[in-house]
Amino acid sequence: MGSADVPKSDDHKSDIARNEIAARAIRPAIGPIRDVLGVSFFEIHLGICAYIVFGWAVPFAPVLMFYLVFLPLVAM
What is the CA radius of gyration of the chain? Predict the structure, then answer.
């Protein structure tokens, strides 16, 4: 067993650092990053869904007339 078989401390540290970098590159992301635009579109979507589900129960004639037009447009 020669001195070439024993890793030097600097080589060992650089191998560990290289393996950590490779592991980060291979590892999938935990989840998508939520930005303001994505969150706001999601909230608008939830509002539209809530209006579709509960819009018929609003006791206000203009809202019900809009619901009468809006619901078939969503279904198209």
Answer: 29
> To which residue do tokens 């037009």 refer?
69
The Cα–Cα gap between 61 and 13 comes to 73
The pLDDT value recorded for residue 7 is 54
What is the signed CA dihedral for 6, 9, 15, 20, rounded to 10 degrees?
140
CA angle 73, 65, 63 (to 5 degrees): 105
Predicted confidence pLDDT, tens digits, the chain (76 residues): 555 555 555 666 777 777 777 776 666 666 666 788 999 999 999 999 999 999 989 899 999 999 999 999 999 9
Identify the CA nearest to 51 among candidates 23, 26, 73. 73
Per-domain boundaries in the chain: 9-75
